[in-house]
Design brief:
alpha+beta; 20% strand; 47% helix; 296 residues; OB fold (Dihydrolipoamide Acetyltransferase, E2P)
Length: 296
């Protein structure tokens, strides 16, 4: 039975490559190796002042410290993996999830630090807060750096694989809905149309103009909403944003033209002007064109 999570903040869903099982395991393993190296090289948490021990003993102690952190992260990512099998996970929630991991890890490291230091007291709020603050700073360095590197690698690997599959013609096209349902800013359904008949959407102040084909002619419907919300609503379909003022159904795009720094899209509707592509959407537009165009 699913919970009612309608109160959750909406946004762009986390990409699959960040939450699939194989990459989660790689993330945990890479973070463990990075953390072990980081602790032994830089010796954070003022650990070099705890006890004067040999490098071997320090390594063994740091291994236990890292093991604790990895167990916390592994449990956290297990919960994330189970969560995304039932619900969507948005980027804002993903960021909050990482912050929660940092806080929990910092709590454990604070416990360790005070437990092994005779000059620190559990009864001194100044000691606890100072150690917890330093623990947060060091924990950010220990896990955010490998998280960022892993994110970049997973993103690069996913794009490389998708392009190879598209070139080989083996990448299945995402299926769009048979009927597109457009809701206004209050969430009320205002307009429904066959998805294949949608040509593009255009922003007009606080409205969106829906351009669609009706009996061979181009028609339009004015909807009070924003392109940002439309992009979130149709993010898994061929209706993609290519400009701050335009979203285009890439199943109707027949050509992508580049001239100097300008990119324009030609659609299969006679007499229709070209649609401009902004630089910030250049890569996404090219990928969408390769994925969808020419497939109906």
């Amino acid at each position: 039975m699913k919970l009612n999570l309608s109160w959750r903040p909406k946004g762009k869903s986390v990409d699959d490559y960040l939450i699939n099982k194989a990459n989660l395991v790689k993330l945990i393993a890479f973070t463990a190796v990075f953390a072990l190296c980081f602790i032994n090289i830089y010796r954070p948490f003022n650990s070099q002042n705890w006890y004067h021990v040999s490098p071997i003993k320090y390594f063994l102690f740091s291994f236990l410290l890292v093991l604790t952190g990895i167990l916390v992260i592994a449990f956290s990512r297990f919960l994330m993996y189970r969560f995304v099998h039932r619900y969507s996970l948005y980027y804002i929630e993903y960021a909050l999830w990482i912050i929660a991991e940092i806080v929990v890890l910092s709590g454990f490291y604070t416990l360790y630090t005070i437990a092994v230091n005779d000059h620190l007291s559990w009864w001194s709020w100044e000691d606890v807060l100072e150690v917890f603050k330093n623990a947060n700073i060091n924990t950010v360095l220990v896990i955010v750096l490998p998280y960022a590197v892993s994110w970049l690698y997973f993103s690069y690997d996913d794009k490389k694989m998708r392009l190879q599959m598209m070139e080989q013609g083996v990448l299945p096209l995402p299926k769009g809905p048979a009927v597109a349902q457009f809701k206004d800013e209050k969430g009320e359904l205002r307009f429904s149309v066959a998805f294949e008949n949608i040509i593009f959407l255009e922003a007009a102040d606080n409205y969106v103009v829906i351009k669609y084909v009706n009996q061979g002619k181009l028609s339009e419907f004015l909807l009070r909403n924003t392109l940002k919300k439309m992009a979130e609503e149709f993010q898994s379909t061929s209706l993609r944003r290519c400009h701050r003022s335009y979203m285009v159904n890439f199943e109707h795009v027949v050509a992508l033209r580049r001239h100097n720094d300008e990119i324009n899209l030609e659609l299969d509707v006679p007499g229709l002007k070209q649609i401009s592509v902004s630089k910030s959407y250049g890569n996404e537009t090219t990928e969408a064109f390769l994925l969808y165009s020419g497939h109906k």
